[in-house]
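Intended use. Records like the one below are meant for learning the mapping from a protein sequence to its folded structure. Do not use them to infer anything beyond what is encoded.
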Amino acid sequence: MTPSCEAPRMWFLMFCGGKGREFRMAVYFILGILLLVGVLLLMLGFADADPAVMARILKRTFLIAAAGVLVYLAVTGRLGAAAGGLAGWAILALRWHGIWRQVKQAREDYQDFRDGGAGAGVGSRGSGRSGPITRHEALEILGLEEGADEAAIREAHHRLMVKIHPDQGGSNWLATRINQARDLLLRK
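Structure written out for the chain above:
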């Protein structure tokens, strides 16, 4: 062979000949570069994207990737083993989903309690309802008895607000009820 024909043949053998180790390394390198560029482009697009559009794109991307993995597993004969592993993961996912739902519900209930929404006041001395209060409820909220003077009302209000004020981690709803009780009893 002449040297001019040998150079292309050497290049072909370098990437495709023998065990193909060099070829695989080159392919992995190129795929890595493409993956890096793709991730950088996604990050740039993510900053300006509409959240609804991003959610749709991520769902479609996940479905396409899942389909690709299933095809790969089917072609390589590993689908049966993957199905067994997937069943175990599905059981764990369902268990975590149930736990997550309970945590989410507890967080919503707590937020409702703090903000005076539905369920607020459960376990407290008040009636748990919103709106105007009666004189009896006002006395009960402030922990006073009928015939309390203005100084006792103001002192009870101050004592409770120190404990219940929203700036101290208390509930807006409870602070509002305490203020309503004070205002009603002082006839403001």
